[in-house]
Amino acid sequence: RATMKSLRFISAEAFVSNAELARKSLSSIAHNLFPLLFKASYLLEQGELIHDLVENWPLVDFNMGKLLETTVDYQEDLSHRTCAVCLESCLTGLRDYVLNHPSPYVKRLKVVDLTGIKDVEVQFCKCKKTMGRWARTQLLSKLCLELLVHLQQTQCNPGTFEISIDVLIDLFVTERNYELVVQALLKKCYCPLKICCVSFRSDNLALQKFFYIIKLTDPSLLRKLEIVHNVRLEMEHLEILFNSIHFPLLMSLTLPARTFNVRRFTATDEQMLTNIGEKLGEMTQLTELSMPFSILTGRIQGLLSPLKTPLKKLDVSNCSLNHADMAYLANSFHVNHLEALDLSGHNIPDLYPSTFFKLLSHSSSVLRSLTLEDCNIQDTHVNMLILGLSPCQKLQEFKFLGNPLSSHALKQLFTFLCELPMLKNVEFPVPMDCYPIGITYPIDDASLCRFDHQKYEGVAEELKSILLQANREDVKASTPLFGSYDAAVQETNNELGAYLIKSFKEAVEKFTTSLNKMS
């Protein structure tokens, strides 16, 4: 589908397509045309010109998200293009903005915002190389340190030291880039480019290192904190974190698997959980909370009732919730505000069907994303599910992988899903009749791919035909066998794999040592 371009944008494209001529002409370009030329250069992946535009940026702010989003001149949103050529040119241009002495413009730049860049699965850039969040963290840290070395070693214009630019970024730190990022944050006060961490994600990091670096990020500015894979944060560590650091602006919190385990609770643990709930209540901006794969049976109310702001996003997948937890959610003040809900890993039809549908009914006016993976939803439950989903007219995304549903039940469900006007994305399971007879759910990873692929393709085509016949080409339907795309995991999967192998090896060694002691 062709995107409309204004005459201004067509002219800008023609101008930037001759990069050499455009670079020579920058000093005579009106300031208000820089944003237009930047988007046109980004679209055509003119790296050298992007560098020069940033190096000579004449405006007070440089906001990547706003520069690349839908504009009057060109309606396509380019903010999901994490093109390595373009992004590296932007960042090196920023470094050279500081070093560029004979700039034709007075240096006015005060804020650079890199947080609007979106990492997505499918890239359309010609170079086919992406620069993800981890690589952006790495490059910005490296450039800040290089800049400091350069300023120390060369005779610089005294005005260079007066430059102070806040660079807003979503940091992503793992063991591999930890030392570099720490050095950049420690020397932030001396560097003209000030790293301002708006969002922080940590994977594959020792707990001690996480506690050290999170303090360096200036937690008072943090909007989003994600502690995800292989950071061994448990409840007692979380209490220490909240007691020692305040997060007044935090809007979104993701905790790693097994942060909570109420099955081995003592009276001290109960008090600890109460304290954590109270600390969450002090975060008056908090609207998104993810705590998957923790065991929270009977404790949801204790954690969520102190919150003063209603949650818009809640992920309690595989948290062993009981009827009391579901009843609390269905009747809490959060329910009328929930835009995204993940209840995967709970046997909803058998344990609390009526309470769940009450929850759906109460959140139906705002609910945009619903995830019910591995919930034991069977053919006999489809009519009930359709009834529950019918009021959810704003639903944009529905994921229900891992449920034992037949081809016939999926067709019935898809016929209904066509009626949800806002729906854009559906993740559906491999039909049960494509697997060998006697398969048990939830299906283990070893058996997940052992289905009749030809039969599955046939069913998938039929489901897409149902969408097409209802004029719903706008709905994307897929079966990502091993879960939805995670840009951060994709970017660091080699490190993640190495960390898992190391952890497994350490566990085997401990086990062997124990056996030797016993014998």
From TrEMBL:
Q: Which domain of life is it from?
A: Eukaryota
The record's keywords, sorted A to Z, are: Leucine-rich repeat, Repeat
The answer, when asked if Cytoplasm is one of the entry's keywords, is: no
- Does DNA-binding show up as a keyword for this record? no
Q: Name one GO cellular component term.
A: cytoplasm
Q: Which family does it belong to?
A: Belongs to the PRAME family. LRRC14 subfamily.
Designated name of the protein: Leucine-rich repeat-containing protein 14B
